[in-house]
Task: structure prediction
Amino acid sequence: MEKDMTKGSPMKLILGFAVPLLFGLVFQQFYSMMDAVIVGHYLGVNALASVGATGSVNFLIIGFCMGVCNGFAIPIAQEFGAKHEEQLKRFVANSVWLSVIFAVVITIVVSLLCRPILQVMRTPANIIDGSYRYIIIIFLGIPVVFLYNMTAAILRSLGDSKTPVVFLVMAAILNIFLDMFCIVVLHRNVDGAAVATVVSQAIAGFACLIYMRKKFAILKLSQDERRWDRDYAAKLYNMGIPMGLQYSITAIGSVILQSAVNSIDSNAVAAVTAGGKVSMLLVCPFDAMGSTMATYGGQNVGAGDLDRVDRGLKSCSLLGLLYSLLALGAVFLFGKQLLLLFLDAGETQIIGNAYSFLQINALFYFPLALVNIVRFLIQGMGFSKLAVFAGAFEMLARALAGFLLVPYFGFSAVRFANPLAWIFADIFLIPAFFHVRKKLAGILSRQKVGS
Result:
């Protein structure tokens, strides 16, 4: 069902939109965690490190794909907020054309380059073959990444954040069974976990596609509306590429940092993998807040109501602060127990490093909340290119840690790399929001005078 976010209480709308997204993200992380749990317990620490060593390059490529899809959805949300149905349909059609092109090109390129990338990242010799077998299958599944994320982004842009979650939950449950089947029954190695992930996401993507074609009358396109349109495609490109680059630029810093971690040893890789998995689950609410603010900002800018944008930012920031405190408490109370999902109790040194990594990250969760809330809001307001610079600041911070700090301070420096990146991004994003708002206020004022 479509949801108009240009009317009603911002707090109520944000919560109503974000909660279903949160469930979807939690389940998405849950089945990612189950990959690691099953791999770690059935295949051992080296297999866990093999999967973990691919995390940053995985984020580099898959994050770009997800960012592009989210960027394509912004003009759709803006046209929905402005009640321009014909333009909305043309944006939907051209987003599909572009997604197909991107999926084919990216799949071919990264599949050819993934082993050289792992070698450049100094992946330890005892895990590089497992890392390659895992990541090549994930990269061959890029078309289904586009399928799910594009259909889900379109549904969210129309205010429906619940339906993509339903299918994602279904995929998460299926992924767990497929993991067990491939690894325990078929005795596959890490490649079995990768196959399970790709198949599950494909099913979620096709389910979203079938649902949106049947249930949304506004998405029933005529033959003319389905055609490629250079002007619409150009606008989508200008929105999608910056959002994709934002993820990728951020991920370049993560690749540099991962390379530094790889240079320590495979135990360090395993510690960061386990700590990172727990942290990624805990920060799902921030991702949900970010996606919510992109749609909220897009619709309200489309409606020309900047006061509602301000109110939404305040409401969501308050939610981010409250959850940050809750997550911090959870880490200090239950962090070690959560790490035992991935690691044997006898791996005391790895558990100790993973726990300290998790604690330091949790102390800085509110800056991370602001990164997601403000960056996605700026993107929803139509300034995707500006938001790319936030990713550049994150990259700079992680590169600083990877090149300068980790070689001298070892794992101690790894603990502080992410918080440093989040603070660097906020230093840019907060002033950027006020700049964007001022610029939009001038544009809207001139439009009113002209009309």
